[in-house]
Structures are given as structure tokens and as C-alpha cells.
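Notes from hallway chat w/ T.B., transcribed later so I don't forget. T.B. wanted the structure written out for a chain they're using in a teaching module, and asked if we could keep both sequence and C-alpha cells in one place. Agreed to drop them here.
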Amino acid sequence: MSHNKKSKHSGQLHVSKHRRNKPKLYALHFHELSITQKLHRENAYKVLAMMRNGSSFSAGCIAAKIDPRTARKHISKAMYKRNNRCKPRKNDHLFRNMRTNEFGKDIFVELSNFKEASKLAHYHRAVRDYLQNGDIGQLNSYKGEGVIDSDNIFHPFEVNPKEIIKIHERIEQPEFYSIYEV
């Protein structure tokens, strides 16, 4: 926003530049992003995951097909530099929109840190093992567990086998193929 003022003494036009403090992209919630920004964020998170698995930042950007400058806008808070190389932090506070099972429903929650997202991913692995192999042992270890979303609301994990089967039967499966990555 610019304000134009005429100086009393010189008669020249003085333009003052007031910058609005726009929040950084990594600080925005998922619903506040445009469609393009959401796609960029997902690709940037793929870069971060590859970095946590030993890949370099530039190799991750190439594999995820994202410009390094764009990736930095979304994940710079989760990285640091050591010896002129980008390294991922062990924990970050980036917003992640993830799917979970709760009270017999399949819902999306926005998590605000890596530890909660990791806990949810491990729960999904236990659900997948149960659905594929009937292994209920890992699933039972999540009784009373859950994740806390970005609004500080607790979401308990669904561990009832019958409810999990109902939830996954309701999830629409593509008939032929999907043009979108899952």
C-alpha cells in the first residue's frame, strides 16, 4: 500500500512504501493456499521426506519436479545449513493435511508438527497390515492413542476392526486408473 505525500519544502512527490507483513508460505494453513500452492506444498514435502531418507536437497527437488526456490518457500523452516548443505531438522512445525480414522469415519486433520504426522503414519501402517494380513496385534497397540491437530483438538485412532473394515469399504476406489497421485 503506497501513500503519496507532497513535501512542503521541495514540492516533490514523496512515496512512502508501507509493506504489509504477509505471512510466509510455510506458516499458512492448508485451506488458505491456492490450488497451485497446495500442489507445490505437497511436492516440497516430498523433497523434505527424501532429505530425511538421505537424499540431497537438489536431488529431491529434481525427483519431485519442483523448483528449489519454490520448495524453500514451503519447507525452509524445516531445514538448516551445515557446511553449505541443506539438512532437514529432526522435528518441524509445518502444517500437514492428513487422513485419519475416527469414530467410524474417515476424516482429514491438519497436523502442526512432524511427530504427530509420524505417529499417524505408523497407525496407518498398522491399519494396512490388519487389512492385508489380518494382523490385529499392531492395531491393538493404538488403543487410547491419537493425534492432536493444529487447533489442539485430540483425534483418537479407530481400533475397532469392524469399523475399520466399514471405513475402507466406503472409500471410493478408482474403476480404471487415476491420473492423480495418491
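Follow-up for T.B.: Residues 114-133 form the longest helix (20 residues). Might be a good example for the class.
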